[in-house]
Every structure is written in C-alpha cells, then in structure tokens.
Design a protein that fits this description.
Length: 229
C-alpha cells in the first residue's frame, strides 16, 4: 500500500494532485501547526495575464494554532466572484465553475475540513479513487514530529511505501524507512505548459487555472508528468 500526506492546501498546484493520484491512502495533515502566509488558505490565479494571489479569510489564528483549530472567515462569496471574473472566458469554465462555486460556498466553518473537502471534491472530478484520512483521526494529539510521525502513520496503516513531495528531502532519511521495511520516494513534477488565453504562459498557479484551461483527459495526462527520486 502506498501512502502520501501533506497539509490541506487551498486549490494547490498540480504536483499536489500527482501525489494524491499515486496514493492508495492520502493523509490530510490537519493537526499540524497553521503557518501564516502559507498556502493553507490562499493561492494564485491568472488575472489579466498576470499571477494574482487570492486569500480565504482565516479566523482565530494565534501562536501555535493548529490547522484544525482555525475557522473560515466571511469572504467566500467575494472569492467565488473573483474566480468567476478571472476565468469566465476560459474554455472549460462552464464545466468547472459550478464545482468550484459549490466548494467555495460550502458552509463548513472549520478550515481543515473546508479545505479537505475541496481536495476530495476535485479528486472525485478527476476520477481518482484515493481514500482520504485526516491525521487527527489517525493519530489524535500525537507528540511525534516529522519523520517519526510519518513512519508511525505508515505503520498504523500497514503501508510499505511512502511518497512525499520533493521539497521533503531534507525532512526524511530513506535508511530510516528501510529499517522499518518501507520504501521512501520523493515526487518531482515535470515542467508543464498549456495555453492560457493568448497570453504568455504563467507557471506555478493553482489547480484552478489547470482546470479552467484543460480537459479532464489532458489533466489526467499531466498527473503522470513526474519523476520519483
């Protein structure tokens, strides 16, 4: 069994979805510390040919607050409107926007659950059969950190293979996983480019941009555009 995990990010980049697609079980790490100015509640979309950051309001963020202790603010309708105007002329707008609007206007007040729901809804749209588990349901309030916490996750789920984004190379040691009879790999996304209106391509945008400009079949091909290290 293959496990992937990461914090719940709002409409993250394509590499996040590649990791989900590779995983039999994906652990949404909701009981980790909330990082201000991170990507849990914000991301980038294309507006008038340039990268523009949008933010979902977060309430109750204090020092050492966990992601699942944060509440969603009151700017959901404004956010949906911004996405509507940014992509209303995109080729797959009519197919994708109703899903995005449903996700954004979800009345869920807990940030981790709200973002976790968005991840699962888009995964369904892309025909993934990955099973999702919240870290808080799996481990409760664990004192384990980083690599020890991840190995514990794998042991609890009887997993033999753990995959992390390539940015996690500094956090994990393959030998530690081998000692537990597990395999560790890091996923590195290939450079991807697609047509965005008639503009010069702008990279590293939210999955929203990918959804608006590409068919489901095209995106499923993108999900295979990676290497494992």
């Amino acid at each position: 069994m293959t496990i992937g995990s990461n914090q719940p990010y709002l409409f993250p980049y394509i590499g996040y979805w590649q990791l989900i697609n590779l995983s039999d079980i994906y652990v949404i790490s909701d009981s980790m510390q909330y990082i201000k100015k991170g990507y849990i509640n914000r991301n980038n979309i294309l507006i008038d040919g340039t990268k523009h950051m949008f933010t979902l309001e977060a309430i109750g963020v204090k020092e050492n607050t966990l992601i699942n202790e944060v509440k969603v603010g009151n700017n959901r309708k404004k956010l949906a409107k911004s996405i509507f105007h940014a992509y209303k002329k995109a080729p797959y707008f009519e197919e994708v926007y109703p899903l995005i609007e449903k996700i954004i206007l979800n009345p869920e007040s807990n940030m981790a659950q709200f973002v976790g729901n968005s991840i699962q809804e888009i995964s369904k749209y892309l025909d993934m059969d990955t099973k999702f588990i919240y870290l808080s349901d799996l481990q409760g309030k664990t004192t384990l950190r980083a690599q020890a916490r991840t190995i514990d996750i794998c042991e609890r789920l009887d997993a033999r293979h753990y995959i992390n984004a390539v940015g996690g190379k500094e956090l994990y040691c393959k030998d530690a996983f081998i000692e537990k009879d597990m395999k560790l790999n890091f996923l590195k996304t290939n450079e991807l480019e697609y047509k965005q209106f008639d503009n010069e391509f702008v990279s590293h945008l939210s999955i929203l941009d990918v959804l608006m400009f590409n068919s489901k079949n095209q995106i499923q091909e993108m999900l295979q555009a990676y290497i494992l290290e």
